[in-house]
Design brief:
Elements: E1 2-3, H1 4-10, H2 16-24, E2 28-30, E3 33-34, E4 41-42, E5 49-51, E6 54-55, E7 63-68, E8 96-97, E9 106-112, H3 115-122, E10 130-137, H4 142-150, E11 153-154, E12 157-158, E13 163-170, E14 175-182, H5 189-196, E15 200-209, E16 212-213, E17 222-224, H6 227-239
Parallel strand pairs: 9-15
Antiparallel strand pairs: 1-4, 2-3, 2-5, 5-6, 7-9, 7-17, 8-9, 10-14, 10-15, 11-12, 13-14, 15-16
């Protein structure tokens, strides 16, 4: 027996928090009876559960790691007909990306049908490191690198402290390869941080998400997460808080 909101989240309908709101609003029924109390436990395999009058699908939770190529949308569909991340994974389940990577950014992205898991990883209070490698036009100064480490003031507020490492510099072409580790997930954050210092990002790749990396994968390839990896993510999301 599991809590009703957890079963709804695992079915990929919405996050656990939003599922709780739906329950309180009387939009969830179990075996034909409206349920408004939180904490009700159900049998996910036997009880008939409906959200807004629609039966939930009892999908087993699945978890994938995809090496997203540049030029791909971090969504399940695109009204302009462009490739989306779900195009690369043949899954019977209704999977969706955990967070997003910009259209022009490549690298590691997770996909799942587990709404609770996705919400846990994306919650702002959970400080899961994300490692990016950027090729920028120009060579940042020590003072500018310190600014990145201390936090850059953007239009939506100052960024949290980051880890910064210059991997290489091409003085002839005046370009640099810089590794940046952050735990926030603001829209186009890495690009905006460099742009705030006057540097154009020519290429951007997310190489790590928490303890996961892209070892053994090429752009467009994916692999399922191991159960121990899913368990470890749940553990670090709970223990690492900003």
């Amino acid at each position: 027996m599991e809590r009703l909101q957890k079963v709804i989240a695992q079915a990929g309908v919405t996050s656990r928090r939003k599922a709780e709101q739906l329950i309180v609003e009387g939009r969830v029924s179990v075996n034909g009876q409206i349920v408004r109390e939180l904490g009700v436990k159900v049998n996910a395999n036997k009880d008939d559960i409906e959200v807004n009058g629609v039966p939930i699908d009892r999908e087993q939770p699945v978890y994938f790691l995809l090496y997203k190529p540049a030029g791909v949308i971090s969504s399940v569909s695109d009204d302009k007909g462009r490739k989306v991340v779900t195009d690369f994974i043949e899954a019977e389940e209704r999977i969706f990306p955990v967070g997003r990577l910009d259209y022009d950014t490549s690298g590691l992205i997770l996909l799942t049908n587990d709404g609770e898991f996705a919400n846990l990883l994306m919650h702002p209070r959970h400080t899961i490191d994300k490692v990016y490698v950027a090729k920028i036009k120009g060579v940042p100064t020590r003072e500018q690198l310190k600014q990145l480490k201390d936090g850059i003031r953007l239009e939506d507020g100052k960024t949290a402290p980051a880890k910064v490492k210059v991997l290489s510099v091409n003085k002839k072409n005046q370009t640099s390869i810089v590794q940046l580790t952050i735990h926030e997930g603001r829209n186009r954050q890495v690009r905006r941080m460099f742009e705030a210092l006057g540097y154009q990002v020519m290429k951007l790749k997310r190489e790590q998400y928490g303890f996961l990396d892209l070892t053994g994968l090429t752009p467009g390839e994916f692999r399922p997460l191991k159960p121990i990896e899913v368990k470890h993510f749940r553990e670090i999301a709970v223990t690492q808080k900003s």
